Each structure stands twice: as C-alpha cells, then as structure tokens.
Amino acid sequence: MSDSERTTLPLVFDEPRGRKKPPPHLADLALDERVERLKELGLPGFRAKQLSNHYFARLVDDPAEMTDLPAAQRDELVAALLPDLMTPLRTMEADRGTTRKTLWKLFDGALVESVLMRYPDRATVCVSSQAGCGMACPFCATGQGGLQRNMSTAEIVEQVVAGARSMARGEVPGGPGRVSNVVFMGMGEPLANYKAVIGAVRRLVDPAPEGLGMSARGITVSTVGLVPRINQLTEEGIPVTLALSLHAPDDELRNELVPINTRFSVAETVDAAWNYARVTKRRVSIEYAMMRGINDQAWRADLLGDVLQERGDWGWVHVNLIPLNPTPGSKWTASDPADEREFVRRLEAKGIPTTVRDTRGREIDGACGQLAATEV
Question: What gap in Å lies between CA 111 and CA 133, rounded to an integer?
C-alpha cells in the first residue's frame, strides 16, 4: 500500500454528505467556546459555567432545578447550550435490573443503543459512536445494517450522562452510585468517527464543570483496526485502554470476518496496537468473538499466541474472549464450552493472559444493533 493510499484511506469512512447536523450542545464545546456561543447569541457568557455545572456536576436535566439562572432567561439559556439531543424509546432490563439497555431516537430519527451495566465494584456504560456501522463484519448485527451517520460528540457524551443520572438517582439496584467506566463498544466503529470520539473522551475526562471528571484509565476505545487512526490515538496523550477487535489471527479468515483487514493486515494491525502499548504504557485488550467451527480451533489459539508473543512478552497485551451473542437467523453461533476452555488453555500456555468476558443481556437483545434492528 502506498503512502498516499494510507493518508487518504480514512476519508472513505466519512458519513454521507448533506445530512443535517444535530444542534450544538455544550458537550460539543470547550468551556471558553461555550462562553463565546452565549455571547454570540446576546446572552451573558458567565452563564456557561453555571449551565456546565448543572449538566456535568449536578446531572440536572430539568430547567426548573436550575434556580441560579434568572427565570426570564432560563429557557433561552437552556435552548442555547442544552438542546434535547436524543429521546429514549425503550429501556429493557436484565440481571435483576443491573443491566439496562436503552434504545435512543436521535433528532433526525436515527436509532442507537447504549447499555448501563452495574457490577459490585463498578458501573460501566457501553456507548455507540455511529448510527449503524460501515465496517460490514458479517457476524455483527450493526454491521449488517450499514452506516447511517456519525454521531456528534455531545450525542456520545449524553449516553454517559444519562447513565450517570440513573446511577446518581438510585434507579439501578444497589443504591445511588456513579459511572466509573465507559467502553466505546456499542454501535459503530469509534475510530471511523475519530474527531467526535476524541472530543467525547476529552469531555469525559475534563474536570467538572468542563466535563465529567472521569479517569482516562476507566475508558476503553474499541476498533476493528483502522491503523492510521490507532497511530493518531497513540499520539493524543490520553491514556485510554485500546481494545482491538481481532477475531482471527490469520489474514485468510480475518479478511472474511473483518473486511477492513483487506486494507490493513493482521500484522500491520497488531503492530499498531503493540506500538500503542509501547508509547502509552497501557496494556492493549485483544477482543476475540468465539464462533463455533469458524475461529475457535485449537491451532488458531496457538497461532494467536504466536502472533501476540512475537511482539514481546513484556505484558503488553491481554486477550478477552467473547462468547458470541448470535443475531436472529445468523449462521454464526457461540463456541462449544469445551473448545472455549481449550482455547484459553493454549493461550495461557504461551504466557498470554486470557479471560472470557462475562456476557450480559442475552434476554434483552444484548448484541449491539439487535434492539435497533427490531424497531426498523
């Protein structure tokens, strides 16, 4: 692949032109930009910090509770920086209410999903970054529907803030709490919407009232392997966890399972992930969906171990095996538990730390894109 192809390739993943953009929201802007927007609208700039405090620190969504704003200007101020971005259509619960999956309708009718998962020691929100996905992985419910559009920074952030409100208000069993982790593993390919995703990450880690004040170490950004964007993320200086959705250790199979592999090979993709770990000192997670008779053979476990180990045995990587949550009518099914155990054994024998993901939400269309697909 030529240098010019590498440079221009990410543009292929831009959303179709001509789509109307969501209204500007304070989560799209840095604090000084929020101040300027209010001034441009003839409103007092200092109110931006108050609005930001209500949104990010107090997690308020009812203007009537924003009593430090003058009643005569309150609606105008809220409309300027806190427009409604998304409407919940359905919320489904599993695991005794500790897993809550929400289907959102965006301003233009596009549908996306987020999932709030509460564990004994943490609460995680899984967010979408695109409506649909253009990566076309055949075993993925979202990939089967194609890409509708990129989401804005604020639309991404709003999924986390909504989860934070639910936790703070004690709506999730276990009493009031806070969101500690965010994973970009919902609908879409995060690095194909790079600018908005990085904007969202910055809003999540910025201290209140600029943002939510989360730790970057609690944020995971997943990708199928857009190598130029992985390299760009490496230089951002934000120590998020990188999760690489590999799903196969050999190009022949990965070309079928993850079509972007025809542009960036297994070797190129793993090299980029290794370099991310080297620069950031953050261990990379290798995501591997276990599919019966497709990618779960013992020899592929050995090959995966070799591919990862040859970059070094200094603990740069961890393999996260995912029991496939099959979509209705799909030929892709979950691996036999015995094959899964053997896969783990062979990886661990090569010194690769390996875990099997705790799957949640099967009874509520847990795989990303399943719930949205039933509404179309």
Answer: 12
